[in-house]
Amino acid sequence: MQQGHTENSLFPGYLASDAGDGAPQVESNGIVAETLQRMLIQTDGRRILLLPAFVDGVDVDFLLTVPGNVSAGYPPATVRLVWTAGVVEELQVSPASRQHDVVMLMSKNQ
Asked: What are the residue ranges spanned by the domains of the chain?
């Protein structure tokens, strides 16, 4: 597997080319997107779990949407997190009613 332009990447294997025929692996972009999203945010029922499997020491800045269950009383939510040097710099949850569902799993401030 060639690493090419991804050799300095934190996760270099995701966007590698197939050395066999030289065609890029189209599914790699989907794999990396889903993997990184699940490392950043997951849901467990109504709980919104932040940084459940992220790499220690890496800063993040993301805006992601999580599913809801309107019939169970919690709508979909949008979460914005800026995490720098292990500290939450910014956390915004919309709608605000979902703020109490957020569980930070990796923080120096716990």
From this structure: 4-104
